[in-house]
């Protein structure tokens, strides 16, 4: 119990948290760092986990110091909004995971932070629809478009 249980609990916590961090992928732009992960702000977890909730910022600049993530979000809020980054306030990845497992999109929508400063906040049902669309199962064609060996080779060739 002193060896196996802590390992199992820790593994579960890390896997469910990581799954939640990457659960809102925009299938039409799965190669865009702004829509491959979400950001969770104003929660206790960030205070004890080195701002892990600012996961989109980490994807955009993996070597950014953890203390700089909140300022980056504030400075680039308009770009986060234009790109369609999902931001939640007051919940962390573990609560996000639980809300997704229980399909509680209404609670997620209440925590949603509208980042596009040039448009009005969508209605609750529109936010729910967005969150459901972002968590839908991707088709085999969508997966192959972004994650096949050929697609990766093409992205690497463009980057160099």
Using brief descriptors, characterize the structure shown.
single chain; 160 residues; mainly alpha; 10 helices; FA_desaturase_dom; signal
Please give the oligomerization state of what you see: single chain
- Quote the distance from N terminus to C terminus: 50 Å
Number of strands: 2
Output the structural class.
mainly alpha
Q: Uncertain regions: pLDDT < 50 for 5+ in a row?
A: none
Question: Residue-averaged pLDDT, rounded?
Answer: 94
Q: Taking strands numbered 1, 2, ... along the chain, how are they ordered across the largest sheet?
A: 1-2
Shape verdict: globular
Helix percentage: 55-70%
What does this protein look like?
The chain is mainly α and about 160 residues long. The protein has one domain (about 5-160). Helices cover about 55% and strands about 5% of the residues. The protein contains 10 helices and 2 strands, in the order H-E-H-H-H-H-E-H-H-H-H-H. It has helices spanning about 5-20, 45-50, 55-60, 70-75, 75-85, 95-100, 105-110, 125-135, 140-145, 150-160; strands spanning about 40, 85-90. The chain has a two-stranded parallel ribbon with strand order 1-2. Helix 1 crosses helix 6 (about 95-100), helix 7 (about 105-110) packs across helix 8 and helix 9 runs parallel beside helix 10. The model has no long low-confidence stretch (mean pLDDT about 95). It comes from Allomyces macrogynus (strain ATCC 38327).
């Amino acid at each position: 119990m002193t060896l196996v249980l802590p390992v199992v609990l820790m593994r579960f916590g890390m896997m469910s948290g990581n799954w939640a961090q990457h659960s809102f992928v925009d299938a039409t732009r799965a190669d865009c760092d702004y829509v491959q992960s979400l950001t969770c702000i104003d929660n206790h977890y960030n205070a004890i986990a080195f701002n892990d909730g600012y996961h989109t910022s980490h994807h955009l600049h993996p070597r950014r110091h953890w203390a700089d993530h909140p300022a980056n979000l504030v400075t680039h809020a308009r770009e986060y909004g234009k790109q369609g980054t999902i931001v939640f306030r007051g919940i962390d990845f573990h609560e996000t995971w639980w809300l997704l497992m229980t399909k509680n999109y209404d609670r997620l929508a209440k925590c949603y932070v509208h980042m596009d400063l040039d448009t009005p906040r969508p209605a609750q049902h529109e936010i729910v629809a967005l969150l459901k669309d972002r968590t839908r199962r991707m088709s085999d064609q969508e997966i192959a478009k972004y994650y096949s060996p050929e697609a990766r080779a093409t992205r690497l060739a463009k980057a160099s």
